[in-house]
Design a protein that fits this description.
Elements (H helix, E strand, L loop, with lengths): L5 E3 L21 E6 L6 H7 L4 H11 L13 E6 L7 E7 L5 E5 L5 E5 L4 E11 L3 H7 L6 H8 L14 E11 L5 E13 L4 E5 L7 E5 L2 E6 L7 E4 L2 E4 L6 E4 L2 E4 L5 E3 L4 E9 L3 E9 L2 E11 L8 E2 L4 E5 L9 E8 L2 E3 L15 H13 L7 H4 L1
Parallel strand pairs: 1-2
Antiparallel strand pairs: 2-3, 3-4, 4-5, 5-6, 7-8, 8-9, 9-10, 10-11, 11-12, 13-16, 14-15, 16-23, 17-22, 18-19, 18-21, 19-20, 20-22, 20-23, 23-24
Helix pairs in contact: 1-2
Keywords: Hydrolase, Metal-binding, Metalloprotease, Protease, Signal, Zinc
Protein name: M23 family metallopeptidase
Cofactor: Zn(2+)
Length: 387
């Protein structure tokens, strides 16, 4: 019985391809596979395998209609077949990229490309954690999204200091949605709907009625703030206070907090206000300032760009996109510098009074709060029971 041969490309060393058949045949197609490594492009992978430059150019042109090849990342896979093992006679090529998506090219006629999205199933997740260590450790122990450690710290920063206020033994309840692929892996980003932190003296609850919108924070059932994280899913890379400056050297005051994230990551206004500056400031690079009233101004710096339509004088709401992460100004790498100023003086964004209270809870907010409390089995104490 004749079987097609399969060849795995080792991209670390681009040795000449050797196709092995058992026995050799001149009729059956040959299958090839490669995993994208740092520094690779689709053109370089196919070129090292002997695919002619004209075919590589035609394939790239066809792919451009459905996929941006600059988004190809290490770990993505390329699979292709060639008639009789001849690299110039491609019959099919597929890119397997993030979230189980396949970008397929066919060569039976004019080269055509199409995107094949796998079926996904939205699942609800609920977890109740006991914080005996860090929030990150508690999330990892329950296979919960690690990004929530950063997102929740930012969203609840005005009400609790995760370093000083948590003594251990606190209860943290979470409700979120995620998309599951047929093989059980998770596609895309999780969507947080509800979080509850039970402290010794109070209960903080966070409700998100829109997946990408701002959240409202309740303290003991009373709305205290509507806000959005300046950036979601990023790593906190530097905190407020004195530090060794990564570019200038020496110990200097760091007047905000930094979130490390790739260039282009969306940056959002943390609260409602009016844009008072959108331009370039020496050291800060491309910068946006938003006046929230009461002497409070937030600053978003080192941006790669300012969102279309954002200009001085316009009003924004919590969660509105205002720009994108960059590496402008004095920086050692891409990050968002987020700063809060009160009466012109920089303050720690994690201080409880750093941002003013936002709008009151809507009927949708209150309905969502009641729903998630019920579904997580939480019965709030009455004033008499609390006293």
């Amino acid at each position: 019985m004749i079987r097609p041969a399969f060849l795995i490309l080792a991209l670390a060393s681009f040795a000449p391809l050797q196709a092995v058949a058992d026995p050799p045949t001149a009729h059956l197609p040959m299958a090839f596979e490669a995993t994208i490594e740092p520094g690779d492009t689709l053109d370089s992978v196919l070129g090292h395998s002997g695919v002619p430059s004209t075919i590589r150019a035609e394939a790239a042109l066809a792919l451009s209609g459905v996929y941006d090849l600059t988004d190809l990342r290490p770990g993505h896979r390329v699979e292709w077949t060639a008639a009789s093992g001849d690299p110039s006679s491609l019959t099919r090529l597929s890119l397997f990229v993030e979230d189980g998506v396949e970008i397929a090219l066919t060569f039976d006629g004019p080269i055509a490309a199409r995107r094949l999205d796998p079926p996904v199933r939205e699942t609800d997740r609920r977890e109740t954690l006991t914080l005996d260590g860090t929030l990150y450790d508690a999330l990892m122990a329950r296979n919960a999204p690690e990004r929530f450690a950063v997102d929740l710290t930012a969203l609840l920063a005005g009400q609790v200091d995760f370093r000083r206020d948590l003594k251990g033994g606190e209860t943290f309840a979470l409700v979120w949605q995620e998309d599951q692929l047929p093989d059980g892996t998770i596609a895309g980003e999780p969507r947080l709907s509800y979080a509850r932190l039970e402290l010794n003296d109070r209960v903080l609850e966070l409700v998100a009625t829109e997946a990408a919108g701002p959240v409202i924070v309740f303290e003991d059932g009373e709305a205290v703030q509507r806000s959005a994280a300046p950036i979601l899913g990023a790593r906190l890379s530097s905190v407020f206070g004195r530090r060794n400056h990564p570019v200038l050297g020496g110990v200097r005051m760091h007047t905000g907090i930094d979130y490390a994230a790739p260039v282009g990551t969306e940056v959002s206004a943390t609260g409602a206000g009016r844009v008072t500056f959108a331009g370039t400031i020496r050291g800060y690079g491309t910068t946006i300032d938003i006046d929230h009233g009461g002497g409070v101004v937030t600053r978003y710096a080192h941006l790669s760009e300012i969102a279309e339509g954002v200009r001085e004088g316009m009003r924004v709401k919590a969660g509105d996109e205002i720009g994108a992460v960059g590496a402008t100004g004095l920086v050692s790498g891409p990050n968002l510098h987020y700063e809060v100023r009160v009466d012109g003086r920089p303050v720690d964004p994690k201080d409880q009074d750093a941002l003013p209270e936002q709008e009151i809870a809507s009927a949708d907010d209150l309905n969502a709060l009641a729903t998630w409390r019920s579904e997580t089995g939480f019965i709030p104490l009455t004033d008499g029971e609390r006293g």
